[in-house]
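Notes from the 1:1 (GR / supervisor)

We went over the backlog. Supervisor wanted to see one worked example end to end before approving the batch request, so GR pasted a single chain during the call. The sequence is below; no edits were made to it. Supervisor asked that the structure be written out right there so they could see what the output format looks like.
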Amino acid sequence: MAAQYQLVMNSGPTPGKVFPLEGDFLTIGREAENNIVINDAEVSRKHTQFVFQGGKFVVTDLGSTNGTFINGQRLTGQHILQPGEVISLGEQINLLFESISQADPNATILSSARPPAIAPRPVAPPPPVARPTSPPVSSQAYAGQVPASPEPAAAAPAKAGNSRIAIIIAVVVLLCVVCSCAGILWYIDTNALWCNFLPFLFPAGCGG
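Structure output shown during the call:
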């Protein structure tokens, strides 16, 4: 079968080299037994397979280490090639698939100097962050009467604290009075001053 399609190496070991696709079953790889041999470290021994069916080439990856990509998308099954698509073997080797009947030799040489842009791989957008919602305020909470203010409950501990302070002050004052009286009585008794201060308690002892 005469070649109807060809591959042009845009980037790789031999940029600008043309590989006519002749036959119904072709393989690309690093070994010499392949139909198209590309001696590069990124190319597996048997890298990619081309099968001609219904006037189209169907490309399949042969379990290569670095993968086969079509227009930047990794090949996971069979793919029917269309003229103008870019086949990438790994990351550095790009092959342009084109029809020989529509190929322009001058355009082929220019394309080897500037490879076509490869569409970037789509990136999934991050999931939306759920914002916390405040619980709804029920209008029935104030129906019929106004709820009691929490201020009296807060004032109760202050009153209890004031009462406790007042009791402590009273006890301290009482202790001071008792201690003062005891000190005065001790002083009178020590210096025998009962007749001077309290003669009515000891009328006989104070000489009447």
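Supervisor's comment: Residues 11 and 196 are 130 Å apart (CA to CA).
Batch request approved.
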